[in-house]
Each structure stands twice: as C-alpha cells, then as structure tokens.
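Changelog excerpt

This revision adds worked examples to the README so contributors can see how folded entries look when concatenated. The first example is reproduced verbatim below.
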Amino acid sequence: MPVARMLRQVVGQMPGRPACGCWTSAPLARFLGTSPRQIPADANFYSSSFSGTDQPRVLITGGLGQLGVGLANFLRKRFGKDNVILSDIRKPPDHIFHGGPFIYSDILDYKNLREIVVNNRITWLFHYSALLSAIGEANVSLARAVNITGLHNVLDVAAEHNLRLFVPSTIGAFGPTSPRNPTPDICIQRPRTIYGVSKVHAELMGEYYHYRYGLDFRCLRYPGIISADSQPGGGTTDYAVQIFHDAVKNGKFECNLKSSTRLPMMYIDDCLRATLEVMEAPAESLSMRTYNVNAMSFTPEDLAQELLKHIPEFQITYNVDSVRQAIADSWPMNFDDSNARKDWGWKHDFDLPELVTTMLNFHGSDTRVAQAN
C-alpha cells in the first residue's frame, strides 16, 4: 500500500491525532544521499550563522504535539514572539495561530522544509515530530516514515544550512537488557519498540553528523513529561497526565499500568528549561551529544497517595494494558543524569509534591477539595 494512502487511513483509525503531523500526498521516501544537495566527503559544517549577541531564529517541527506549543511560548518570552516559528501539518486552534508565527511544515517533504529554513533565515531547529510509543506500535510503517525518514530530512537540512539542531530522545531508547536503576548515559540500549529504535537511530545519526560534518547536534533523553495544559499524546507514561484530569473531574482514575511500575518523570517547566539550557550551553562544555535528564521517579501508587492528600475521596483502580505494561517494564526506573548536572549545570525544580500541587492548581481542584472537607 502506498505510504501516503496508508497515512490518511491510519489517521482516521487512531484514538488521538499524532503529535507529528507529517503525512503528505507527495513522494515520501528521500533517503540520505539522494537529496538535491549532496554532502561533500570533506564537508565540515559548523553553526556559525549567528553570533552570541544575535537572537536565534527558531523553527519547531511537530509543533501541535504535547511539547511544541509550550516550548514556543517559553522561547518567545526569551527571544521575542517573531523569532520563534511553530509548524505542523494540522490547522492550529485560534489561540495558537494568533499567539505567534505559525506555518505549514511537512518533515517528509524535503523541499518544503528546506524552503522554510531559507525563507525564514532559521538558525535553531527543534525537531519534535514523532509518533510516540503506544501509537507507534499500532502503526509501525507510519512511525518508521515519520520518525526515521523525517529525521533524515531534518539532519540534511540542518547540516546544509549550519543550524543548531535539537532532537529529543526518551526513556524509550532503552530496553530490557539495559541497567534500569539507575540507567547511565552510555550503556546497552536495545529497545523493543519502533519508537525506541527510531530514537536510538536519531541519537546515533546526530552524533555521526556532528563528528562527520560538524553539525551542532544536541539531544536530551526526556523522562515521562507531565504537562497541565496539553492532552496525553499516546505515550506509555501518559497515565501521569490523565490521572489529574480524571481526579478533578470524576474523583477516580483507572490506570493501565501496574501500581508498582516505577518510571522517571519530569514536570514540563523543568523539561523546557533543560531544553533551552542545553541549547545555550557553550559547545566546549558538552562532553557528549546526548544526555539523560531527570527530576523524579515514582509509581502510580506513589502518585495516587500524593493526590489523596489534596482530594481525600480520590480512588484509583487498575486495568493493566499488556502492551503498555511490557513497554514500561523494559524502560528505566530511574535516570542517572549526573553528566548533565556536571557539564552544563542541570538542576530540576519540581519534585512529586510540587508537581501534584501545581497540576491540581491548574485544573482547579479547589471545589472538589472543599466538597471533600
């Protein structure tokens, strides 16, 4: 089945739209070495397109996913609204469209991506287009096209135009043979999901482009990211987002992971700050191109107990999804992020109590707490 037709069919079947926005009716497969621009064997690119006193010109791909809008708002406060361009293939809601520059961008269309970079004088690119773990397992061909072929396009454009490139990685880049508690930056990985395989591929390709062509590639392995103002995006750690919606609305939550499943997590404010900090870090301070970052590690039971302090009538039940549980059981229980803390001064702000208080304040739990009291 042609990939373009498959993309359109799969979208209609998915429980939620993917965070990538990357299907197209144009020819999709453009692999490294077949682009209009061949990278010379002796190429030696460096991100010198702006000085330290200039503001970067930023493009965010997959911008309507879980993290893109928050990152755009965060960066616009720092660099100015007009210097940060959000992109996706989906039509944005009004408040996003009017909040700052937004354009159509399909990462599977190399020509479109290249034109955007040239026409907007982009110097930093944040590549957030991806299908997450659970959705990726249901749509392997789509995940392969978006997560791998799309990455190749981004790498080529970034190398050609001397961009500083950020590609997020994940706890899903590790597998059942990885050390789990804690998981260091460098160890055996061997993930068993297409999402994890594609992220290991991204880490290694980015590092290769750095050493082969001088591309300024930077990458953080995110833990599960918890955000108050976005909906779950099809990931295995999404229970830690959905639980707050359900707790405030219904006073109960059905969890699809076992109560004892421990995973590393981070509040979105820490995630966005870590992302900007690693992008702004002097190149000479980076001893590696891909870093673990962490804030806390907890189980569904730990989270439920903290919620009970605020919503005494809250109830949690468990209906384990075997696919998601198998994925979670292959992932790290805790990240060792000592290199990030040593090299560029990473330090998180939110632990579990601060996380729960912040999330409930955002969702307006005062009424329910008052009723319980």
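The second example, added in the same revision:
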Amino acid sequence: MSAAEAGGVFHRARGRTLDAFSAENEKEWKGPFYFIQGADPQFGLMKAWSTGDCDNGGDEWGQEIRLTEQAVKAINKLNPKPKFFVLCGDLIHAMPGTPWRKEQTEDLQRVLKAVDRDIPLVLVSGNHDLGNVPTAETVEEFCQTWGDDYFSFWVGGVLFLVLNSQFLYDASRCPVLKQAQDHWLDQQLSIAEQQRCQHAIVFQHIPLFLQSIDEDDDYFNLTKTVRKELADKLIKAGIKAVFSGHYHRNAGGTYQNLDMVVSSAIGCQLGKDTHGLRVVVVTAEKIVHRYYSLDELSKRGIEDDLRELMKE
C-alpha cells in the first residue's frame, strides 16, 4: 500500500516536515507535554529468531500483530492524549527485495490505522526498512510507503529532528543522498542553535552508542568516528536527547549533556526486557522518560509522578 493508497490515514512526512504540526503555531513554548516512543515492531522477526533463520524465517508475524495492536490500544486509552507516537524504525522484518515484505507492510499499516487520529504518527526508517546498505531505490520505496526518511517538526516550542541512520552506518551505495542529509542536518542544527528552542530532540533507529561514547564498534551502534563527530555536533547545537531503537533491549548513557536513550522493542526481545513503549515527558527544564511494558501501560496508564510533571 502506497502513501496515496493509504488515503492520508497517516500524517506522513513530506517536504522534510510533518504536516500534522504547523511550525507557525508550534514554535512557542506552551507548557509541559508528553509523547510516546516505540521501536521495532518488526513484523516477522519473532518467528525468524525462534527458528534461527533471520534471513528467511520470517513467514509468520501473528505475534507482532497482536503486540502492536495492544500497543495501539494502550496509547489510545491514555488521557490526556500524547502529542504524538514515534516509531523508531524496523517497522517490518523483511528486507527490501525479499519475500513477505509487501504482506508485512500491509498488515502493519492496517494495525496503525487504528491509532487515534488526534495522535499523529512519526515514522523513522530502520535498517530492515531500507536495507543495511541502502540504495536510492530502497530509500525511494520507503518514502513512497511511509513518508520522508528524514525531516523535522516543531511541537510546543520543541524542535524534533528525525534522521536516516542508515546513511550514518553505510552510505556507500547512495553517497549523494547522505550528503543531502548532512547538509540538511547542518541547516537544522543551525536553526536549533539560533532560535533558542526550549529543547531539541533527535529520533533515529541506530543508537550513537549503547552505554558509553567510547565503547567498541558493534552491530548495534555507530562507529566511534561517526558517533563522536555527530554527538559533538548535536551537543554544540543544544540537542538534549537522542531516542533510538535497534537493540531490542533497553540501554543508554550520557555523553557530556547529551542523553542517549535506547528503547526495547514492541516486537521481538533479544534480552530480558518486556514488549513495551516509552513515555517521554517534556517540561520547561528537563526531559523525563520511563519504559513501560505493554501490560503495565494498558492496565495502569501513566504513573502519578509523571502526571504531576505535566501540570507544572
């Protein structure tokens, strides 16, 4: 199903912005708010992981459908409503050009249609959405299906930047596209620095690091050279936090005053965490976040201490 066929059900990013939010109306701080972050619904991985065949085994995804439906229902019940729901990549498991990709995409789009229309969806590209080594064709397919692969938007005086982290991982087959994102990011960071937004926050699939800026290179992080250069850029521009997925476990750390938040998956767990979502409260002074299991969020909702922060 293409963006056109979906009939505008999702507020898809177009023209490097998200039309669900008007920049003219959203650049002023209006008080505390919250949003929901999820990652890696990755339809098909649970079966593939259980059979030990991650390349070809993802021919069933009923568990992921049920988990993502549970996530959507939990989000829709929240009161007050979150400002938006961001999914930080690996929307489906089937890589570009492999079996089941079309079917997984259609099933995820069907599930996401149930998200309350007053809660915009923010969709981030992951390695399974674009391929580990993206090409112009795979990027175009993602943009046609889900919306722009990188973009920015304002909510309540806070600037949000969505990055295509595959360009940071391996852009050898699409160097011109990477250069375009680099140039765009420099412009956006200049805006963040000059406009004195209340906060600026980044969403991307692959974390800069899992625990420490100096950790060894790994499949689940960006290389030392890339992560350090990008982190220093973000810090200089006043970015407060980067939210990611990819690891299928909760992790994270701090570098100088930059918070790196790695959230576990809605779908397949590779560690001891539960299928879940992260609640992120943005106040005038700080960004406070807490990971909830889907069961916890469904049954109890947001805890009182986080609610109190939203009243400040």
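Reviewer comment on example two: The two ends are 43 Å apart (CA to CA). The first helix runs from residue 23 to 26.
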